[in-house]
């Protein structure tokens, strides 16, 4: 009985979150891609300027507004450094599962390629600027992104692995 209740809870949670995601994605066509981005990174302290670099400041602000509206993220813009957002790990997992079905994600999908290029440019920029705060955040996000190995090409893994090595160095 306990296992059945747990299964029902998971189904209900999945249904509630995917319903919210559908409403968010209907608001703007770019939101699907940004959702995929945050689903592939670490769940905590995702730099807002990474989202800005992907789809622009206005779309990123609107995206964050809608995620907060459905209580899917927490957003902290109070620090003197980069504002960050965080998403619960189970919500993030549901989001990635849902988007994998929608996009029919397979190895080296064009969206994965554009996200990895963004991550590469953002990491190289942080390294060149010696922005240790962003580098610290990016190390975790890059490790999580690389953990989705079946979805990534060898080239992508190599480039981001080198960037990660640069951060650790």
Structure description:
It is a single chain. With 169 residues, the chain is mainly α. It has eight helices and three strands. α1 packs across α5 (89-103) and α2 packs across α5. It is globular and about 45 Å long.
What percent strand?
5-15%
Rg measurement, Å: 16 Å
Secondary structure: number of strands: 3
Helix content: over 70%
Given the C-alpha coordinates, what overall shape results? globular
Task: Please mark out the parts with pLDDT under 50 across 5 or more consecutive residues, or reply none.
Answer: none
Terminal Cα separation, in Å? Answer: 52 Å
What series of H and E elements makes up the topology?
A: HHEHHEEHHHH
Main β-sheet description: 3 strands, antiparallel
Strand order of the largest sheet: 1-3-2
- Structural class, by secondary structure, is mainly alpha
Query: Helical element count?
Result: 8
Q: Determine the mean pLDDT.
A: 89
In short:
This protein is mainly α and 169 residues long.
SSE layout:
Blueprint: H1 2-27, H2 31-40, E1 46-47, H3 48-55, H4 57-69, E2 73-76, E3 84-87, H5 89-103, H6 110-128, H7 132-146, H8 154-168
Antiparallel strand pairs: 1-3, 2-3
Helix pairs in contact: 1-5, 2-5, 3-4, 6-7, 6-8, 7-8
């Amino acid at each position: 009985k306990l296992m059945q209740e747990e299964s029902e809870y998971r189904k209900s949670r999945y249904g509630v979150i995917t319903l919210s995601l559908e409403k968010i994605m209907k608001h703007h066509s770019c939101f699907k891609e940004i959702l995929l981005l945050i689903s592939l990174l670490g769940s905590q302290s995702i730099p807002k300027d990474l989202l800005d670099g992907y789809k622009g400041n206005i779309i990123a602000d609107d995206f964050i507004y809608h995620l907060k509206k459905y209580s899917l993220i927490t957003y902290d813009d109070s620090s003197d450094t980069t504002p960050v957002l965080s998403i619960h790990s189970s919500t993030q997992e549901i989001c990635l599962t849902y988007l994998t079905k929608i996009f029919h994600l397979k190895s080296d999908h064009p969206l994965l390629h554009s996200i990895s290029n963004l991550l590469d440019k953002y990491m190289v920029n942080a390294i060149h600027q010696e922005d240790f705060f962003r580098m610290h955040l990016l190390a975790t996000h890059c490790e999580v992104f690389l953990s989705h190995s079946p979805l990534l090409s060898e080239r992508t893994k190599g480039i981001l692995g080198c960037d990660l090595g640069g951060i650790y160095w």
